[in-house]
């Protein structure tokens, strides 16, 4: 049986990220149309290209030169009333609860536990889909996928940094594996 190859690509940087704010449905902060020239042929045409529904993910997917299929399972974690807010403007007690209790959602959105369950369920659906899938998504989703693959406790969620436009390679052939590649 052919393995499932999953490449998770983090969306490009946004103005809110550069300002130290939580994400909202904003555009990317780059000449994404010009950058498309350098990324359009990075993956073969038979690769399944998926993306999260948010504008920043759709614009980043456009860098790869073709239409992506929007998959709601790849959506960013719902931060409720914290969307677009600076960390420094949040209630410090609420923020501390959210950072230390993965089941909490003081912002009124989705808890980290909920994001992790959603992503794990989505990844289980991919296990029977051989071939290469490239998914443009968000740091929260990539963190959740890594916790699932590495079987780490959810307490490790905030210890994973995901850079804009970074690629994370995962493979499934009876078990999920993290694959580190060189590009020398």
Secondary-structure arrangement, i.e. CATH architecture: 3-Layer(aba) Sandwich
Measured between the Cα atoms of the first and last residue, the distance is 30 Å
Counting DSSP E segments of at least 2 residues, the number of strands comes to 6
- Please, what is the oligomeric state? single chain
CATH-derived topology: Rossmann fold
Return the CATH class.
Alpha Beta
The amount of helix comes to 25-40%
Order of helices and strands: EHHEHEHHEHEE
**Helix segment count?**
6
User: Mean of residue pLDDT?
Assistant: 90
How would you describe this protein?
This is Histidine phosphatase family protein. It comes from Pseudomonas fluorescens. The protein has 184 residues and is α/β, with parallel strands linked by helices. The chain has one domain: Phosphoglycerate mutase-like (Rossmann fold, 3-Layer(aba) Sandwich), CATH 3.40.50.1240. It has six helices and six strands; from the N terminus they run E-H-H-E-H-E-H-H-E-H-E-E. It has helices spanning 15-18, 32-39, 55-62, 92-100, 112-126, 139-150; strands at 4-10, 48-51, 69-70, 131-137, 167-172, 176-179. The chain has a six-stranded mixed sheet with strand order 3-2-4-1-5-6. A hairpin with a 3-residue loop joins strand 5 (167-172) and strand 6. Helix 5 crosses helix 6. 29% of the residues are buried. The model has no long low-confidence stretch (mean pLDDT 90).
